[in-house]
Amino acid sequence: MYVSVYKIKPKVKSAPLAPPHSSAKVKQTMDQLEFNRRQMLTIMGGAAAAASLPLGAFAADPFKLWAPGIAKVGGKDWAAMEKEAGISIANIAKSARADESIQKMVVGDGNKLYDAMTDNGGGMEDALASQGAIVEIDTSKIPNWANVDARYKEGGDAADTIRHEGKVVAIPYISNADSLAFNHEKVGEELTSWEALFDEQFRGRAAMQNDFGPTLTNTAIYLKQSGKQDIVNASDMTEDEVKGVCGFLIDLKKKGHFRTFWDGVQNGADLLSSEEVLVSSCWEVIQIFAARKNGQDIRYGSMKEGHQAWNNVVMLTKGGQERGMEDSFNALANVYLSPWFGSRTLAGLGFTPQMTGVNEYIESNPDEFDADTKALLTERLARKKERNENPGNAWQNVFPTNIRAYQDWWARVQAA
């Protein structure tokens, strides 16, 4: 996650986006996964197994969840989540790296260690399900499934991000459409186009994420919608399209345009709050943390060209099912689809709720949300709705068809 100086060009309407995981895409992903046991070792530098935790590190009863801190609300520990779910949770910290998940769950011993895990719903659910690492979820046992956002229902634009071969294998718990954060006081205006990020007036004061997925996708969206480059699908580019996008970034980098490419929430937030950078593509949580630090007017815009849309999902592992932890998983999934969770992840980290009923929950719980907080959350929801409905959006894709081209050209961007 995630710009009246400019002459903004008219928006170029894009053709409707193809579903991110159509049957053809699923087959494509599954075909790609055949390289996991061969090429994955190459991708991960030849490592054949991940570091593992001793099974004795966990008690028999706690639900063992492999997930990052953003998967919880209510405090620094998991107590509030445990109380809501009615289960004991043993959390094992996890990064957002796709290679780590594949290595641990497909090549390594993840199913022996974890009852459930989280990851991106942009191909990872297909990768893990096709390898038998995760299992189908019985949504009839999750009461709050009835509240899931409409885009996850059959036919919705995110329906395939939680399904494999038509079966639900993941429950969404957060999502967003990554955009541009900017220092409004220093910039002096509201930014509504990615063009600002690449404009020479911000040379040396611009930053992007050090990750080829969101950085190449958002750059591709801008180049496509502005008519600067012919790109069919910003989520799944051809080798020539990847070359063109990276060439654009390499040219800017050689001119000293980027202050840096940030890694991690703290680094991204510090760059903005210190005013080392004035414009940065980033996650909304970074903008929120940066604005909170020194009380600066750091805003998160809605880009007219579109954004990379993404979600994170929670999945029941095959090992978790075999150990009889399905009921515990369903209890936790029910919390993730509750307005209790949705309102809190919106307020604390700025993530989009994955269920209906959040506004009603906020209104009916004035002791939890004062007038200022309610106004802020209403504003965030309105901006999220605007970003999520942008026809130029492209969904995250963990395994693009030409992933090797992405990796090779991204290495050239980093080396430039």
Short description:
With 416 residues, this protein is α/β, with parallel strands linked by helices. It has two domains: 23-169 and 310-337, Periplasmic binding protein-like II (D-Maltodextrin-Binding Protein, domain 2, 3-Layer(aba) Sandwich); 177-307 and 393-415, Periplasmic binding protein-like II (D-Maltodextrin-Binding Protein, domain 2, 3-Layer(aba) Sandwich), CATH 3.40.190.
What does this structure look like?
With 416 residues, the protein is α/β, with parallel strands linked by helices. It has two domains: 175 residues, D-Maltodextrin-Binding Protein, domain 2 (3-Layer(aba) Sandwich); 154 residues, D-Maltodextrin-Binding Protein, domain 2, CATH 3.40.190. Helices cover 40% and strands 14% of the residues. It has 17 helices and twelve strands. Strands 1, 2, 3, 6, 7, 8, 9, 10, 11 and 12 form a ten-stranded mixed beta sheet that branches. It has a two-stranded antiparallel sheet with strand order 4-5. Strand 4 and strand 5 form a beta hairpin. Helix 8 crosses helix 9 and helix 9 packs parallel to helix 17. The longest helix is centred in the C-terminal third of the chain and has 18 residues. The chain is globular. It starts with 22 loop residues before the first helix and ends with a helix. The N terminus is likely disordered.
